[in-house]
Design brief:
The complex is a heterodimer of chains A (about 300) and B (about 325).
Chain A (H helix, E strand, L loop, with lengths): L3 E14 L2 E14 L3 E5 L6 H9 L6 E6 L2 E2 L7 E4 L11 H13 L5 H14 L15 H14 L4 E5 L7 H18 L2 E6 L2 H7 L2 E5 L7 E6 L8 H4 L3 H17 L3 H5 L5 H19 L4 H13 L1
Parallel strand pairs in A: 3-8, 3-9, 6-7, 7-8
Antiparallel strand pairs in A: 1-2, 1-4, 4-5, 9-10
Chain B lengths: L2 H15 L3 H31 L2 E2 L2 E2 L3 H39 L16 H32 L1 H14 L4 H15 L9 H27 L3 H9 L4 H39 L4 H11 L4 H30 L9
Antiparallel strand pairs in B: 1-2
Helix pairs in contact in B: 1-2, 3-11, 4-5, 4-7, 4-9, 4-10, 5-7, 6-7, 6-9, 7-9, 9-10, 9-11, 10-11
Classes of the chains: A alpha/beta (about 300), B mainly alpha (about 325).
Bound molecules: adenosine-5'-triphosphate and magnesium ion.
The site of adenosine-5'-triphosphate has 13 residues of chain A, from strand 1, strand 2 and helix 1.
Amino acid sequence: MTTTHLELTGVDIEFPTPKGSFKALDNVNLKIKKGEYISLIGHSGCGKSTVLNIVAGLYQATKGGVLLDGKEVNEPGPERAVVFQNHSLLPWLTAYENVELAVKQVFKGKKSKAEMKEWIEHNLELVHMTHAMHKRPDEISGGMKQRVGIARALAMEPKVLLMDEPFGALDALTRAHLQDSLMEIQNELNNTVIMITHDVDEAVLLSDRIVMMTNGPEATVGEILEIDLPRPRNRIELADDPQYNHYRAAVLSFLYEKQRKPEESDAAAKPAKKEKLARNLQNDTTEETTGAVSTAETTTGNDKVKAA
Amino acid sequence: MSQSSTNLFSPVLAIFQSENPGASLLGFFKQLIMPVIGILVFLLIWDIGAKNIHTSLGTFPGPVQVYEQTLGLIDEHQAERQKEQAFYERQEQRNAKKLAKNPDAKVKIRPYTGKPTFFDQIGTSLITVLSGFVLASLIAIPAGIMIGLNQPLYSALNPLIQLFKPVSPLAWLPLVTMVVSALYVSKDPMFAKSFVTSLVTVSLCCLWPTLLNTAVGVSGISKDLQNVSQVLRLSFMTHVVKIVLPSSIPMMFTGLRLSLGIAWMVLIAAEMLAQNPGLGKFVWDEFQNGSSNSLGRIMVAVLVIGLIGFMLDRVMLQIQKKVSWDKTAVLR
Ligand SMILES: Nc1ncnc2c1ncn2[C@@H]1O[C@H](COP(=O)(O)OP(=O)(O)OP(=O)(O)O)[C@@H](O)[C@H]1O
Ligand SMILES: [Mg+2]
C-alpha cells in the first residue's frame, strides 16, 4: 500500500501558440500511493486540467513523464478513467447505454453478456441512478448526468480515477449530496483518485492529500497538505472540528495569501481587516507543521474568511 | 423550401390531433387564412398577367387553361393505358388460339411501345433522380466522413471540391454522354444509356453539398466526445458508428436535403438538353410541338416539377426526424 502507484516526475509542458510557445507547467513532481484520494486545487488557469490530461494521456508532457505501476503513460486508456467537468455523455445514448459502451470496451471477452448487464446495473446503482437508467442525458438533471459520468468511469474498474471538477457545474445542495455518495463509494472501492476542485471544503472533506498549485504560467506544485481526518467523514460533525477548520484555513491561506491572483494583488487599497485576516491565516499554516492549533483562533479565522 | 407551404399542412394535422375540435377549427382558419390569401392573390395576378401576354403560340396560359390541360393530360394517360391493355389482350387471345391449334407452338408477348405519357415521364424522372441521389449519397457520406476525420486529406481535396462544386450540369453533360457511350457497352444492358447518362450527371452535381456538410459535421465533433472515445480506446469503426455518425447527422441531413434539391433541378435540365426520357423531355417536346395547348401543358409541368421538389424535401425531412436522436430539435 505504501509503494508509489502513480508518479509524475519533472513534468513540463509547452503549448505552441501563435505568439510562440507557452510553458504552462514547470517541473511538476507528485507521488501517489494506491488507494489515495488526491485533490488538485489552484487558481483558474494555473494548469490543473493540464496535469490531469497528462495523466490521462490526452496531452503529452514536453519534458518528464508519468509512471503508472512502473509503466510509462503515453496514450489515453481505460485504466485511467476520466470524469469530465461537463459529464461528456453521448447525448444519443441512454444512461445505461453510455455505461454499456465503456463496459463493452473494457470487459470484451472477459465478462458474459449477462455479467456485463449486471455490472452496468450495479454501477448505476452505486450512484443511485437505477430509476432513470433508460433515460437519455437531455431527459435527466445536471447532477444525474454527473452521476452517470461517474458510474461510467467506475464501471471501467480503472487503476486511477481522474475527475476534472466533477461537481463544478452543480448547485451547492446537489454537490454536497454527490460528495456524500462519492465518499460512500470510495469507502467501498478504495480507488486511487485525482480530483480537481475549486472548492476548499470539498477538497478537505474528500481528500487524503491536497496538492496546491502555484499560479501559472510555469505552474508547479506549491504545497502538499496531508489531511489526517478519520473516515468515514461527516460534513456536519466536521464543521465544528478544529482540525478540519485548520486544514481549511491552510488551503485558504495558500490560495488567497501566498498565491493571490495578480489582479487581486494589484488592488492597492486593501482594508486593514483583510491584512489582519491574512496574518491570522499565516499563523495557522505555520502552526500546522507543529500540529497544535487553538480552536478559538482557527474558528475566528474561518469566520472572517467567510465574511471577506 | 417555402415556409408558408409547410404551414399550409400543419393546421390540417392539428385538427385531427386536437381534443377540442371546435377551438382548433377556429385556429385552423386563422392559420390557413394567410396562405390562402397568398395563393388567391397569386392566381389573380397570374390570370390578369397571362391575358396580357401574347406569344406566337397564343396567349399565355392562365389558371383556367392550366386546369383544363391537367385534365387533358390525365385523359391522355388513361386512354394510353387502355390502348396498352387492349394490345396485350389481343396478343393473349392470338396466342391462345395458336396453342389450341398446336400445343407445341412457340408463343411470345411483345412489349407495348406507345408514346410515354406525362405521368410515365414523371415516373421516369423520379426513378432517375432517386437513383442518382442515392448513388451520390453512397459516395459522398463515406467520403465526407473520411475527409472530416482526416485534416491532411481535407487540405488535399478541398481545392478540388471547391473547383468542381460550382460546375453546371450542362457543362458535364456532353462529357458524361461521351464517356458513358464509350464505357457502358454491353449487349443486353440492364439500364438504358440515357438513364445512365442522366444518373451520372445528377450524381456529379449533387455530390458536393452532402460531401462538404458531412465533412464539416464530422470535423466539428465536440472535443469532449473525442476525449471520451480516446479514453475508451474505441476502435475506428466503433468511433465512427457510436460517435461520428450520430453527432454529424444534423449537418449530414442539411447536405442531403440540399443535394436532393439540386439533383431534381439538374435532372430536369439534363433531360431537356440530352433528350433523355423524363419531365425535362416532356417540356422540350411540348416546346418543339408548338400547338396551341403546348404552353398550358408546359405550365402544368412547371407546377408539377415544383410540387415534386417540395414533396421530395418533405420526405427527406420526415426521414431526418426519424433518424435524428435529438427529438427536441426544431426541424423544418
Ligand atoms: N491546448 C492548449 N493550448 C494552449 N494553451 C493551453 C492549452 N491548454 C491549456 N492551455 C493553457 O494552459 C494554462 C492552464 O490551463 P488549464 O486548463 O490546465 O487550467 P486550469 O487550472 O484547469 O483552469 P480552470 O480551473 O479554469 O479549469 C492556461 O493558461 C491555458 O491557457
Ligand atoms: Mg480546468
